[in-house]
Known about the structure:
Blueprint (H helix, E strand, L loop, with lengths): L17 H57 L3 H9 L7 E8 L5 E5 L11 H8 L4 E7 L2 E10 L4 E8 L1 H51 L13 H51 L7 H32 L6 E5 H12 L7 E4 L7 E5 H18 L3 E9 L2 E8 L35 H11 L3 E6 L7 E8 L4
Parallel strand pairs: 7-9
Antiparallel strand pairs: 1-2, 1-5, 3-4, 4-5, 6-8, 9-10, 10-12, 11-12
Amino acid sequence: MARVRRAFRLPLPARLGLRARITFAFAATTAVLAALLAGTTWGLTRENLINQREASATRQATLNATVMSERVQANQDTEALVAAMASLQTPASSRPSVELRQTDDTWRSVSLQSTFGQAVIPDSVRDAVTGGDSVRMRVTLNGEPELIVGIPVNEGSAAYYEVVSFADLEDTLESLAVSLLGASVATTLVGGTLGYWLSRRTLRPLANVGLAAEAIAGGRLDTRLEGTEDPDLNVLVSSFNHMAQALEARIDRDGRFASDVSHELRSPLMTLAASVSVLASRRGEMPDDASRSALDLMEGDVARFQQLVDDLLEISRFDAGVARLSLEEVRLPELIRQAVAQHRTGRAEVAVELDAELAGMVVRADKRRLVRILDNLLGNADAYGGGASRISVESAGDSVLVAVEDSGPGVPIDDRGRIFDRFSRGAGAGRRSASGDGVGLGLALVAEHARLHGGRTWVEDRPDGAPGARFVVQLPVARA
């Protein structure tokens, strides 16, 4: 029973990039620490400032109460008391007041400000002061924080009150809160920037691993990573290099095996082909049609076998890195026409359309490989597309586009990338055609030959909208 491999789907936060997660972690950690420090600093500063202001206001109110005690004993006239309160050393935000007990046990209030009266003093404070206790209480009057200090004077016959505004202190604390908030935001930005820089520095070796893996996937199997001074990263480097070395050795062994097998098959194959050729020359002497049919089948299979061996030898040269271009001056239009005519011998002619500026063009290229590219594309069209219907050669700047169109079922989009892989014939090649399919090396060799010239290959829909596929080879022009 086949084992099904299930992909583990990461949660949304983990699907972020590693660099983004590191940067976010640094920024979040810095923001939390900055918020904690800012909150602690603001709370301690607020408590200290309020305690200092209360202590200072209480001391000053006590001194002022002593002064007013002497003035009350000497004179209880309202104007004299107001003048006495005006001469007290009080802060600008302080409002002093004196209450005098009358003979009918009521209280008369004398204040420095006309808007300040008995209604300002809470009943709980007045009751405590008239009972002989000194009191201080923080209250909110008209939306502003205030401190009320009450002190009994002359053994309860009078009371001194002083209301001190904390509005300026609240303004100071608000300014401090804004400054701490700004510092927290700046610290968070610095932390995020530091996290981004550290993530880039930390992930740089992983980026090198990615580039090396991409190079190996592109065929540069000798790519290796350089060692580092970090012992933890050296484990990754050594493991990657060991993997790359093992992969290179494995591919080399497979390439040598294919090359050796192809070489070993060539000699008996040539003998077999020669024997079949001798039999074919005496076809008329065969006794019946069955023998001639068997000979035809043998000829076709031997021809396909020879093509397979030649393709394997060609592929092994690319794998071994010994494939080289044999450049010569080639008249491109004539070469294309001759290659098409040679391939289409005995078949219906195919229209070859050339750009006017390509007429008579002479380029430097490998003639054998160009002919092989066209032959393989035409053979692919014969096998899967009902034969080539149109061949066009177009100029594209410093490149030339050679396109072979067929009228077959076309190539599905999902198969357009992998049909140029080795031994891949696409989804529609499950059955052998009348002419006999290959083993999936023809288009792979087209891609290898084009890549050796510095070009590339792809397949697309026909531009006229008709059914079929259009195989395009882009080759750079090296003019003679």
